[in-house]
């Protein structure tokens, strides 16, 4: 038997492949957005789709996010499965009216008669030296909107699996793509058949015994690095990658925290009113008697995303995570 | 009466003040972009103004070249060049009085600099040290806007406020062809027309929104035509003809200042460089097209006119070049110095008074920085 050499692919390539496979499998899948056609998207995620499937299936739209998502609503009403690309996190805001007032609640408004299978792809987050409005982490806004699923991959395989699942979903799904991981590679073999991830399950990326790092998206590799570094301090950290923020996998998260008794939530977006607050509250409600210390949060500061020259001070890095882990020695302190 | 009958009887009664424009013709733009250079109209142009425009064009081009070079040296994170569009940029700044306001889009650093802002401060957004490096009130220049078209309603609001206060201030708002598709563009035009706000909208139609050509952006005969539906005049002008752009903008500004309301100006131009240094323009356009536009270069057009009419000799040309060179040297020298940034400033201007939570975060960062310092020693 010959071993197939693994061809590492980037997250961006896996997303492209997911779009292509979804379009090939289902003629109702349409991609639309700014620069998605000829250019293949500013991150090249839609590269080749217009050539392969025609401009009616992969369409360069006028430059108007509200229009893109609003027309996607009508397309979905008529039986298509639109996948829209928002070019950058902060440029999705003009579409929030459509997202919040219609996309998220059409099923509910129509008592189940008009579900909207729309996928909204949003490259998000910082760490790429982008200028103003190119680095926002907007997950809290999406999470706070009932009716939306919100997923965010951290691995190449998940990028494929989650995007396929999003497109297949009969409900609207916001796929937050961590743009600083677009070029990250792992041993995903594009030649092999790929699995579609069910939406709503977290994954334990690294097992450990002394505390759980609960994280997602761009912070997953940072937490894995922190977990490695923490070994020197005698900490054996478990890293849970949420993958899906809505629905939230209480089961996997709580099973981990019950085992370790300590937890730190790590994300890039601000902590005040941010995802970490919700996660910490859920964990506390469900695991109170197992907790040896309060659930801590390591997050971005509560400031507008800073200019690139200062972003390293804003983004939660290994040191800040290790400091939080040290603070988990609650008993010793009190 | 049945509901249907009631409906049939219904006649909308317009509010008393509403006067439909019976003749939209005066609002319609010319069929061809308006030109001055190389036409008889050029004889009317003020030679002094033309020479000023020329010096500013040369300076603007040099600025674009220098800023692009700085991206290659890693001194600038990104630069959206306006090479080929300098006439629009320069005319925009020169059409305004000191008390007027400019609302630039992210590509409009040249207009900002031509308005008097320090060239280095105009670049902080793109260099990555601060989002806006200049005081908007000092030169009456709003921050460069990255989200497209979002600055347009601001311009309308400011102009409206100025008029309410009795000031004869005009706002000039700049947007790209792509930006005209955004809802904010439509809302801004509509507000401006309804309020008869003293605003001038300048669309630089450079053919592309990143990769998307104008034909995929609009089905209108021209972007200037969009004005008519809102009830304001639309003007179409050759965006590479500095004299024409200046004349049309100056007219529109005067019209607005005199209470005539807003104007939409479309300047037809071309983006010679890629969208930014991070963009690969060969994916969506061919060299031949770019070359055609190089032959319609705004500097050459003006230079030819001035030279033919004996308004520009070699001395004047080299004076313009020297001044531009000095500006570039200064820009280069100052951009090559490392920016001195205090990370603690992250918390300085989020609120007038930092929240207790921000103070906590500030203390955390201070402790981290101190630890870093100690570690370094
Ligand atoms: C609301 C919004 N959507 C998307 C973008 C991303 N983007 C930046 S520039 C650009 C194209 C702009 O084209 P145009 O308005 O023609 O101006 P030009 O770049 O040609 O000067 C796009 C899509 C943005 N900045 N803001």
Strand order of the largest sheet of chain A: 3-2-4-5-7-6-12
Label the overall shape of chain B.
globular
Number of β-strand runs of chain A: 14
Helix content of chain A: 25-40%
Compressed to H and E, one letter per element, the order of chain A equals: EHEHEHEHHEHEHEEEEHEEHEHEHHH
Radius of gyration of chain B: 24 Å
Number of strands of chain B: 7
> Regarding quaternary structure, how should these chains be classified?
heterodimer
Round the Cα radius of gyration of chain A to an integer and report it. Answer: 20 Å
Largest interface: A-B, 39 and 43 residues
- Poorly predicted regions of chain A are none
Average predicted local confidence, pLDDT of chain B: 94
Mean pLDDT of chain A: 95
Largest sheet of chain B, in brief, is:
5 strands, parallel
β-strand percent of chain A reads 15-25%
CA-to-CA gap between the ends of chain B? 92 Å
Going by helix content, strand content and strand pairing, the class of chain B is alpha/beta
Region (Disordered) (chain B): 1-30
Domain Dehydrogenase E1 component (chain B): 68-336
Keywords (chain B): Oxidoreductase, Pyruvate, Thiamine pyrophosphate
InterPro entries (chain B): Alpha-ketoacid_DH_E1_comp, DH_E1, PdhA/BkdA, THDP-binding
């Amino acid at each position: 038997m010959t071993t197939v050499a693994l061809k590492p692919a980037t997250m961006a390539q896996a997303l492209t492949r997911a779009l292509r496979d979804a379009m090939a499998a289902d003629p109702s899948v349409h991609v639309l957005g700014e620069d998605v056609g000829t250019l293949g998207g500013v991150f090249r995620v839609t590269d080749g789709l217009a050539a392969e499937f025609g401009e009616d299936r992969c369409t360069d739209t006028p430059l108007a996010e509200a229009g893109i998502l609003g027309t996607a609503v009508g397309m979905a009403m008529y039986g298509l499965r639109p996948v829209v690309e928002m070019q950058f996190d902060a440029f999705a805001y003009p579409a929030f009216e459509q997202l919040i007032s219609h996309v998220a609640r059409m099923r509910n408004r129509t008592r189940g008669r008009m579900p909207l299978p729309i996928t909204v792809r949003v490259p998000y987050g910082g760490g790429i030296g982008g200028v103003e409005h190119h680095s926002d982490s907007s997950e809290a806004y999406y999470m706070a909107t009932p009716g939306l699923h919100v997923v965010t991959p951290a691995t190449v395989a998940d990028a494929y699996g989650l995007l396929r699942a999003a497109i297949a979903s009969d409900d609207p799904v916001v796929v937050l793509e961590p743009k600083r991981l677009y070029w990250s590679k792992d041993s995903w073999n594009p030649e092999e058949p790929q699995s579609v991830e069910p939406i709503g399950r977290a994954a334990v990326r690294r097992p450990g015994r002394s505390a759980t790092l609960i994280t997602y998206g761009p912070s997953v590799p940072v937490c894995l690095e922190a977990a490695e570094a923490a070994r020197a301090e005698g900490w054996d950290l478990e890293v849970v990658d949420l993958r899906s923020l809505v629905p939230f996998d209480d089961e996997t998260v709580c099973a981990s925290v019950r085992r370790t008794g300590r937890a730190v939530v790590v994300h890039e977006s601000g902590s005040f009113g941010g995802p970490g607050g919700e996660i910490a509250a859920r964990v506390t409600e469900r695991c109170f008697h197992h907790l040896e210390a309060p659930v801590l949060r390591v997050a971005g500061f509560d400031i507008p995303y800073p200019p690139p020259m200062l972003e390293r001070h804003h983004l939660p890095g290994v040191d800040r995570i290790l400091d939080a882990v040290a603070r988990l020695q609650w008993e010793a302190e009190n | 009466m049945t509901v249907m009958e009631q409906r049939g009887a219904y006649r909308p009664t317009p509010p008393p003040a509403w006067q439909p424009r019976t003749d939209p013709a005066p609002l319609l733009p010319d069929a061809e972009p308006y030109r001055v250079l190389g036409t008889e109209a050029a004889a009317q142009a003020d030679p002094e103004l033309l020479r000023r425009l020329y010096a500013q064009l040369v300076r603007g081009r040099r600025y674009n070249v220098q800023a692009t070079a700085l991206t290659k040296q890693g001194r600038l994170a990104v630069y959206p060049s306006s090479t080929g569009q300098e006439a629009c940029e320069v005319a925009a700044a020169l059409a305004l009085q000191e008390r007027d306001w400019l609302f630039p889009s992210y590509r409009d650093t040249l207009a900002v600099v031509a308005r008097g802002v320090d060239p280095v401060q105009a670049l902080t957004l793109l260099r990555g040290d601060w989002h806006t490096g200049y005081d908007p009130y000092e030169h009456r220049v709003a921050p460069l806007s990255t989200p497209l078209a979002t600055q347009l309603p601001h311009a309308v609001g400011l102009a409206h406020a100025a008029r309410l206060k009795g000031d004869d201030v005009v706002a000039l708002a700049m947007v790209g062809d792509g930006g005209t598709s955004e809802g904010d563009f439509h809302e801004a035009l509509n507000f401006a027309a309804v309020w008869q706000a003293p605003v001038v909208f300048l669309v630089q139609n450079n053919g592309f929104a990143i990769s998307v050509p104008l034909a995929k952006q609009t089905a209108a005969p021209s972007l200037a035509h969009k004005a008519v539906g809102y009830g304001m005049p639309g003007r179409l002008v050759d965006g590479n003809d500095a004299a024409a752009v200046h004349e049309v903008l100056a007219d529109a500004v005067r019209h607005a200042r005199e209470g005539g309301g807003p104007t939409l100006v479309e300047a037809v131009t071309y983006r010679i460089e890629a969208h930014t240094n991070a963009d690969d323009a060969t994916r969506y356009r061919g060299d031949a097209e770019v070359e055609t536009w190089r032959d319609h270069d705004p500097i050459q057009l003006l230079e030819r006119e001035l030279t033919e009419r004996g308004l520009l000799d070699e001395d004047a040309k080299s004076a313009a070049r020297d001044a531009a060179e000095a500006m570039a040297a200064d820009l280069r020298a100052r951009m090559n110095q490392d920016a001195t940034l205090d990370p603690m400033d992250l918390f300085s201007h989020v609120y007038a008074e930092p929240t207790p939570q921000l103070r906590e975060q500030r203390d955390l960062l201070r402790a981290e920085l101190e630890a870093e310092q100690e570690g370094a020693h």
